[in-house]
Amino acid sequence: MMQPRPRHVLLTGAPGSGKTTVVVAVLRLLSESGRATFGFWTQEIREGGARKGFALKLVSGAREMLASVGWPGPPRVGKYGVKVEVMERLVVPEIERGLAAAKRKPGVVVVMDEIGKMELFSRAFQQVVVSAFDSAARVLATIVAGPHRFADSLKKRADVKLITLTRQNRESLAEEIAEFLRSA
User: Fold this and answer.
1) Is the dihedral of CA 20, 21, 25, 31 positive or negative?
2) Can you tell me whether residue 136 is helix, strand or coil?
3) Are 87 and 125 in contact (CB under 8 A)?
């Protein structure tokens, strides 16, 4: 039996390596070429040079805090309290809109920055992630580098191209990934 060709891109790398920067650049390139995109990316929230939390920004424009040092949790990741309901109220419906669009027209790209510890507290998010990978949509996602049962299962999929972001490749990756997503 023939192995499926990769259709999706998982981008991994060390924290602070520029994964989100690459994702936002790919979104811009896809938008310029008229490709329909849905999904989200993360934004660090800094005050006085210190990271205070993380916000989620939807491709459709909405933005909301996901985690903050000022929130008690649970759940918690390190010093951050996480609001799981933000994933379920904001992100899951955004991805579902992308999956519905992919049923109507080819070439839809679903972007998820990031499939990480904070986001994976949501079972509904985990379910919609699997649905996205199994759908007609193309997926571009950043994913936690370290071991995580759910994330590791995605990294092992035969229909996934796993790319590790490095200083050597980060300048050329946005165009390369956009071209890959447009062509397959």
Assistant:
1) positive
2) coil
3) yes
In angstroms, the Cα distances linking 90 to 118, 132, 147 are: 14, 16, 26
N-terminal to C-terminal alpha carbon distance within the chain: 20
Tokens of 86: 């933000």
Give burial (CB, 10 Å; 0-12/13-18/19+) of 167.
Answer: exposed
**Per-residue pLDDT reduced to its tens digit, 56-75:** 999 999 999 999 999 998 99
Map residue 36 onto helix, strand or coil.
coil
Helix (H) or strand (E) holding 45: strand 37-47
Are 150 and 156 contacting, i.e. CB atoms less than 8 angstroms apart? Answer: no
Residue type, 42: T
Q: In this structure, are residues 47 and 57 in contact, taking their beta carbons and an 8 Å threshold?
A: no
Domains of the chain, CATH where assigned? 8-42+55-62+84-183 (3.40.50.300)
Output the pTM of the full model: 0.94
Cα gap 77→162, rounded to integer Å: 25
Give the pLDDT confidence score for residue 1 in this predicted structure. Answer: 54
